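For reproducibility, we list the full input for the 4'-deoxy-4'-aminopyridoxal-5'-phosphate complex.
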Amino acid sequence: MSHTAPTPRAELDGIPAYVPKPPKPPAEGPSYRLFLNENPYPPLPSVLAAITEAAAQTNHYPNIFPDRLTDALARRLDVPPEHLTTGPGSVGIYQQIGQAMLKPGDEVVYAWPSFEAYPIVVRMAGAVPVEVPLADGVHDLDAMAAAITPRTSAVFLCEPNNPTGTAVGAAELKRFLDRVPSDVLVVLDEAYYEFYRSPDAPDGVALHHDRPNLLALRTFSKAYGLAGLRVGYGVARPALAQALRKCAVPCGVSRVAEEAALASLRAEHELFERVDRIVAERERLRTALTAQGWAVPPSETNFLWVSAGAGSEALAGELERGGLLVRAFPGDGLRVTVGSSEANDLLIAAVGRLTPGR
Ligand code: PMP
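The corresponding predicted structure, in tokenized form, follows.
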């Protein structure tokens, strides 16, 4: 018998794993998960009741597509249901994008640093990442437009941007969209849409109507607090939305996830009060960290970027030992999720103690 093993595709070599090493909670004492931009609130009782009820039917398959959720979202967003695709989180929709829209050798333009899934999605498809550095922590839309070539098949725009929390306004975004050739897909990743409070915040769902190359991506993971159940959706003109749906994993959104998302839409008022509180905490946290002398750009998300440069890893390590589990970007900064007010108080005190020169 020969001992050769099946050979994975060569493209996989060197593609980083999606999940970086998670921070380690200390052996004793409480710890706070501030490294994945999660919502600090547990599910509402009404959402938990829907989850429990749906869980009792786990012996059955869900529908191939979550049709009831699709219809509810269509009503909520005032778009026809054919404009929607759904998946297990917005990362599930990126897989649809990779399969439906990217070919080997295509170029995909996106800013860097940005959402870490982008290079993975692009390289998995055999396409070529074209990374355009942020300018002063913000999308450099002129440079991104200039990076588009006849080989570009897509632009990914993280708006607001993860990990910096920064955003571009509606007018600037529209000018950029007008410069992108109509055969180039623009993915407007609005994972943090509900936290974006500037009056100039763009709305990808509104923008998609007269832009056949635009896909707006949203998720139930952040504002709706359903990260553990994996529900995301995309809104696009029907030709694009239906191509993506063709590539969706059948039954990729479980019945439990669908019912939880439906219950969350019904409880949106209560959930958005929580989002208001997170936004208020974000501003309190930023004011406090800035007063300590840290450079923290304004954020339109549920996290803050702390430019700690070369000291980022050491600072994250110290916070980790105190149970504050944040995300370090070595040599660059920390990304800190806005947590409960208790976690935020502890963070302000701990970072204050670690401030150089204090
Ligand atoms: N887009 C961005 C910009 C994100 O930061 C995240 C999660 N961190 C996602 C998409 C994926 O979210 P999910 O798959 O949970 O919907």
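The chain has two domains: 24-43+269-353, 45-266. Residues 37, 89-91, 115, 158, 162, 189, 191, 219, 221, 227, 232 surround 4'-deoxy-4'-aminopyridoxal-5'-phosphate (CB under 6 Å). Both points were considered when choosing residues for closer inspection.
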